[in-house]
Design goal:
Mean pLDDT: 93
Strand content: 15-25%
Strand order of the largest sheet: 2-3-1-6
Helix content: 40-55%
CATH superfamily of one domain: Nucleoside diphosphate kinase-like domain
Low-confidence stretches: none
Shape: elongated
Amino acid sequence: MTNDELAYVLINPYTIFKSRTGGVIVRLFTRTSLELVAARMFAPSRELVEQYAEIVVSPKDPQDRKIQELLRQYILDQYSPDPKTGQRRRAMMLVFRGEDAVKKVRQAVGNIQQDKGPAGESIRDTYGDFIVGPDKQVKYFEPAVLASPTPDEAEIKLKLWAKYSEKDGGYLDNVITYPKTANVEETLVLLKPDNFQFPSSRPGNIVDLLSRTGLYIISINVHHMSIAEAKQFYGPVRDVLRDKLRGISGQRSRAALEKEFGFGLNPEIEKQLGELIGPPHADFQFNNIIQFMTGRNPSQSAPSTEADPGAEKIVALVYQGPDAVSKIRNVLGPTDPRKAAPGTIRRELGHDIMVNAAHASDSTENAKREMGILRIKDDRLRPLVEDFYKCKL
């Protein structure tokens, strides 16, 4: 690919804290049309912050040098652990790949200007602030997100963050402080493949809708589910389908045979037909789920390839907070979008029982099981950076 590049966006701790993450993601997906290839949460150490701040000022950056100095100080102040409590702050890194990726991302992000152009034209127009008083002194500065101005600098900074990816990033289960009486839970959300068929606002809209729960994102990954993972992940669904479809299969088989032969069949035959047709019907539907989530037909795939990454993309997020499981499922809505309440994710974005925008764990136990299957704690950022730039960090 000509000018194939990696570009990153760091969503600032304050932007995340104010639940603006979904809006930022919408802009990036719809304004760049680039492929999201990695995502990772960070709780940066002082060491990482200082190294990043040191290289953020660049003669190649079109931003005024004074603005760059403001950015450097902002990083030191807002990305470092809280000086009073030592608590680390959450930042989210998104990595995009494609032709002229750095330029496209930077255009979507926008530059920082005291005299802004049309409101909402860029991410920083919408979510950033740069307020200067009558004395020409900066009163308030919030750049919303951070991104590199050139491919060379994107490489330098990606290598830095990837180097600290395992130490300072990943599954941030010890970052948020809660009241002792809070029923703190963690739950898994999957943005399904139907959200990534083409660049759209859907992924960001889902994150935005989930933000109404008041929960915290503590992990995010881009994943290509293998057939083996999908079979294990959805394994409990197979038995449910067999129970559910036994009666439906019997009714449909009876109706089809009565129409074909022109005479009626008794309920006992319908039951026998259900016992006969139900299991293969359930297996067929189960295979459809596997194919939808992986992009590969399990019945046409060799057993030796079942562990290979699938062709479809999902984004896995872990939310943490009081009563996380029920809060997420209430916003998500029932499995069948037709039965979901207005304003829920599945009512707004779902198509049918399978193509229904997102998955959410139904219990803390299942959340733990599902996270284990998808290896949520694995570092996928560093291998990506090392492979793309042919280096060892």
